[in-house]
Amino acid sequence: MTIRSLALSTAVLCIAAPAFAEDSFPATLAGHALIPAATFIAPPADAPKDAAISGKFTGAARVMEPETVVGDTGANHGKRPTGMKLPFKGQPLQGLSGFAMTRAEDGSIYVLTDNGFGTKANSPDAMLFFHRLMPNFDTGAVEVKETVFLHDPDFKVPFRIAYEGTDSRYLTGADFDTESIQLLNGEVWIGDEFGPYIIRAALDGKVMAVYPTMMGETVLKGPDTAGISAVSVMGKDWTVQRSGGYEGMALQPGSNLLWALFEKPLLGEDGKPEGTFLRSLAFDPAKGEWTGAGFKFALADGATAIGDFNFIDATRALVIERDNGEGAASLKCAGDPMPDCFPAPAMVKRIVLIDTASVDADGFVRRIGHIDLMDIADPDAKARLETVGGTAGKFTFPFFTIEDVMQVDDTHIMVAVDNNLPYSSGRALDKAADNEFILLSVPEFLAAK
């Protein structure tokens, strides 16, 4: 094992992340491809009729008529309309929330779509699925080679699912918030935010096992874990923040361990974050057990969460680090939110390189350096979309949730966005974000030790 086993406990440690200085490396845009925001797929023929129209429960009451409710960016981002309307006919191919490190035999990449519309309550008609996708950076198109829907015919899920009484038993966003994926021994392993759980499934989407999270002898739970009641006590009955479960889950070459990384800090007994760091815990798929090993990832100033996590060799790994902003900083609102400005523009959007073989006495993994996704050179004009408020010759990735990263070769990485359809914009003020993929040339970054 290359990552030191740490003594983890549920005691409140309230340790601030250590101060650190790390190198910043240049990045150059080598390719740009996208799936348009308004891309939808039909549910399987044996899915409940309910799944034919998705997004019916995103408001205060059920809405049955398609395309009648205007999507907007929400209160934190000025409630700007995005040009998309709910409910949707079919299932949106959106919310791309994780790259598997290992490709399929034909070279396509395994990509996970998340729970649907953001919460357990508003996504009972959003089906859960993963894809095999093939970005073509020459044409700018992304081919959808296959979509696989998760289903539970053998009742492996330990709680009642939304489509419990159906023969097909497809899973929905009311059951799990699937955010990270890996391929191992011809099976997929998926990290969930609600439990948080790790889900083992066959390549046809059939669930084979569901594992709760153990830290020492304690089962970690969140407010959306099955069995948590409305009168539960934050910090005691549950310590995983809402939408704070496994946003990243990396497969370590050699050991074949899965390293699950929380999106947000865990809570102490007082209900407050235990520090400005995130925990990663190791799971052994061969044994179906948590190993007890782990490390802490220190968040940089201004960062609030991570988006994805993938190894590039036996010990070094890529982590997406982000704030909650979207849009160009040049268009930051001077006062109250207006249609022509961004109230909370994107500032901290990074890919961080960490060295999991180097963990200090307090359990913090070493940050080697980072690239800035808000400062990407584009000398060859590879960008296929204009950025409102952008600068000529510079490409940015100004999105709220950037949740996909993987190494392509010795000098390139690929990054993609979770576009939160129909709620996020970023590239423009009044247009829903597309599912963008970027190929970045970063030779110095990938060679850093």
Question: What can you see in these coordinates?
Answer:
- With 449 residues, the protein is an all-beta fold.
- It has one domain (23-447): Tachylectin-2, Chain A (5 Propeller), CATH 2.115.10.
- It is built from one helix and 30 strands.
- The protein has one helix at 443-447, and strands at residues 23-25, 28-35, 40-41, 53-54, 69-72, 81-86, 88-89, 91-92, 96-99, 109-113, 129-136, 141-149, 178-184, 187-192, 197-202, 207-215, 218-220, 246-251, 258-262, 277-284, 289-298, 305-311, 316-322, 349-359, 365-372, 376-377, 394-395, 401-407, 412-418, 435-441.
- The strands form nine sheets. A five-stranded mixed beta sheet has the order 1-25-24-23-22. The protein has a five-stranded antiparallel beta sheet with strand order 13-14-15-16-17, with no helix packed on it.
- Strand 28 (401-407) and strand 29 form a beta hairpin.
- Mean pLDDT is 94; it is low at 1-15.
